[in-house]
Task: structure prediction
Amino acid sequence: MAPPRTSPRRRALAAAAAAPVAAALLQAPAHAARDAPSLTPVGDTVLDDRALYFVSYDGLVNNSSYQQDAILTYGGYQYATWYTEDRSPVIARRTASSGSGTGDWESVVLPHSLSADDSHNTISLGVSPEDGRIHAALDTHSSTVYYFRSEAGLADAPASEWRADAFGEVQRDLEGVDVGTFTYPRFAQSPSGALQLSFRNGVSGNGTMELAEYRDGAWTRLGPWTSAAGTYRDHGGTSERRNLYLHGFDYDAHGRLHAAFTWREQSGDIACGPGNVTNHDTGYVYSDDEGRTWHTDDGATAAVTGGGRMLSVNTPGHVVDPLSADHALLNQEAQTVDAEGNPHVVISYVPGRFTQCVTDFTEDRREHGHAFHLFRDGAGEWHKTEIPEPLNAFGRSKLVLDGDDDAYVVMPGGRIMAASAESGWTDWTKVHDGLGAFGEVLVDDDEVRDTGRFSVLYQEPSTGTAPSPIHVADFRTG
Ligand SMILES: *[C@@H]1O[C@H](CO)[C@@H](O)[C@H](O)[C@H]1NC(C)=O
Ligand SMILES: *[C@@H]1O[C@H](CO)[C@@H](O)[C@H](O)[C@H]1NC(C)=O
Ligand SMILES: CC(=O)N[C@H]1CO[C@H](CO)[C@@H](O)[C@@H]1O
Ligand SMILES: CC(=O)N[C@H]1CO[C@H](CO)[C@@H](O)[C@@H]1O
Result:
């Protein structure tokens, strides 16, 4: 009889805390064959043969994963969103039980036209569980939000008719609530049933992370929880302003909210040279009260949202993986949480064995960039493994944990690497060669724990501004 799933893993983790490498070697062989995670492609559907295509900031407005909510599952439906060739936002849905790829997508075109050729101006979707409304925040980069809110019950069963006028007119605030100079919307459902919206107020190098909350049919701006102020010094230089970039904003099954992040400094004086992008360090905080107060790993209060104390670059104890601004560390990468409530993060950068000073952020990442899996174990120790597949690309990866907590990292182009929980996430192997996607992809893992299925939203490469097909590929984990 198979032993209980968690016990070998707990032993592996306890051993890993003491001696990470030895533990991996001792634990892996015995069960590697039985427990090796695998992946089966189960379908691929074209959503739009002619989706909008242009490249900016090395990203596509349809493929850049600055956000996490372009494909998600709620209730009986999976939703996906993109821009059509004529710059209109589209929201499509199919029944979730047809997640094998056989279901028909129905789409609606919303009354708006993308305002700028800027790959930051993506579309993020959320559903408010208390009234079944679908919310979309879109088309912003340090600008005023565009926002749609559907009529009540649209996302609830039995299925309502899928019509564009159910979303009303585009708004420039959240139903009357101003949200400032807005970028990077991410929605999350809180354990008590609110829909929360995380966003940056301000600009790159001088911005704060904020939280808004939709409850009882109305939005409230809860305010900032990070500060742009503080002093960061390196290479004899000083930077006095910055912003925080989230890798994720995820609740675990016990109601804890997890947020791993990186900082970007305003001043390039703290870098080794004109390497361009001043991202440094991986930080982590959590909240046990739905984002009102935030704590570092040692339990100390790091921030009170909307209050006096803000998480800053000078907050003690928040850095879980130190890295200077000289390694082309990317912001907004990937985070998820395992069944035991421990955070897992994917970051990527140019390791020190290649250079201690990148000179071209994009090219150095393409040539020498590698992705790393970071996780915190139950004892509060952080572990880090380099994923043994070079990025061979500029962009970001996505992270999925299945019902066994086996990990799948969906890399640029749609290559997928996997590692088992039982090995302590050290036995990384390639389980999918790629989708031929243009760069970064987006992932819906909302159902993966229960059904073993996850979906990848990706766009085919094109040239210039010629439209290209956008797809959803479905996988079953094993
Ligand atoms: C940072 O942004 C604030 C407004 O959010 C502005 O008042 C301030 O002048 C900016 N500072 C710098 C150094 O850019
Ligand atoms: C990045 O560095 C290059 C070469 O030094 C320079 O031409 C470019 O303007 C820089 N870009 C940014 C955004 O700083
Ligand atoms: C791979 C690729 O298409 N890279 C392009 C990224 O975008 C810049 C302009 O923003 C182009 O110059 C690159 O060729
Ligand atoms: C944001 C982003 O980086 N997107 C990627 C889209 O795909 C191209 C081509 O591979 C990449 O260069 C971009 O990095």
The chain has four helices and 34 strands. The helical segments are 6-18, 20-35, 361-368, 448-451. The two ends are 19 Å apart (CA to CA).
